[in-house]
Design goal:
This protein has 220 residues and is an alpha+beta fold. It has seven helices and ten strands. The longest helix has 16 residues.
Length: 220
């Protein structure tokens, strides 16, 4: 190949792969103009690097962390919708309620217990909370659901082997005196944050339950 030859001539089929590449760059850089996305990479203002998972999984428990930035419930509605995350009406009610207390500069460690952590006959809330007690976990804050939803894309949730994640904060009364928790997951190509009226006693292996860690290590 000569130095004047366009390297894209080596890509077969060209348009489909190039289109997917540019869309990925747009998604990762957060820009909507494809020309701007290309400029960011070519100018080295955005560096392409090898993907490294930001979570650790041990014994079917996923560990990750985030640091809060003071975003209010109202601001989260705008922030998540700007990222094309679908918010159910109940979710907006919860995010705008008085129980939503944003924090800033707080590093929060999260443990997501996968349903497959339990034997099939033990996939019930009694066994779940017994394990939560043993692992010294606590209920997370409501705002944790927003940070987790933003961090965990549908592809990441799929890579975790999950369909949905329930954030086990203290239930919030949001409609007809019914209490709900926030849950999110993947519905095809759609990303959503929903309110879940936690009444089921049993669960499946592809559901995750997010709690907050109060210790630095969890062992089997």
């Amino acid at each position: 190949m000569s130095k004047n030859q366009f390297i894209i001539q080596e890509i077969l089929p060209g348009l489909g792969k190039l289109n997917a590449l540019i869309k990925n760059i747009m998604r990762q850089t957060g820009v909507k103009d494809p020309n701007e996305a290309i400029r960011l990479v070519n100018s080295r203002k955005w560096i392409i690097s090898e993907y490294k998972p930001f979570f650790i999984e041990r014994f079917d428990i996923i560990h990750l962390s985030f640091t809060t930035d003071g975003t209010s419930g109202f601001q989260w509605i705008e922030r998540l919708e700007d990222e094309n995350i679908e918010l159910e009406n109940y979710v907006k009610t919860i995010l705008n309620c008085l129980n939503f207390n944003p924090t800033i500069g707080v590093k929060t460690k999260i443990a997501i217990i996968k349903g497959k952590h339990f034997k099939q006959e033990d996939c019930n809330k009694e066994k779940l909370y017994a394990e939560v007690s043993r692992l010294n976990l606590i209920n997370p804050s409501v705002e944790s659901a927003c940070y987790l939803r933003e961090m965990l894309t549908n592809d990441t949730i799929k890579a975790m082997g999950l369909m949905s994640i329930k954030v086990m904060h203290n239930p919030i009364e949001c409609f007809d005196k019914q209490s709900a928790i926030l849950t999110f997951g993947r519905r095809g190509d759609h990303s959503y944050l929903d309110a879940y009226f936690d009444q089921d006693k049993e669960f499946s292996s592809d559901v995750g339950f997010a709690f907050e860690e109060v210790s630095n290590a969890i062992t089997a």
